[in-house]
Hints:
Distance between the termini: 29 Å
Number of domains: 1
Number of helices: 6
Radius of gyration: 15 Å
Oligomer: single chain
Amino acid sequence: MSDAEKTARMFKVLSVGSRVRMVELLKERSLCVNALARTLGITAAAVSQHLRVLRDAGLVCPEKHGYYVHYRINHEALQKWKESALVLLGASSEDSHHCQQLLKKGEKL
């Protein structure tokens, strides 16, 4: 898969608002399907479908906790996606470094 195809896939995965909200929630802590469903106000089935897309893209990882499966963000993959987005948007290396520092602090761009 070319870099352009990988970048296009990244944006396709994040083109659904519920998935973006899931990523934001899972950056903070791991959650199970039912907790995500309650928080997002959508069905558990819809959450499962979105998680499958995020899992297939390598952005979330499942963790078994007894009878429950919790999902957490794959921070390494998220970092690569951030870098790809910055490159696509034409950020210079200095801009990219500044953006990375803001992102590490949790500030919005």
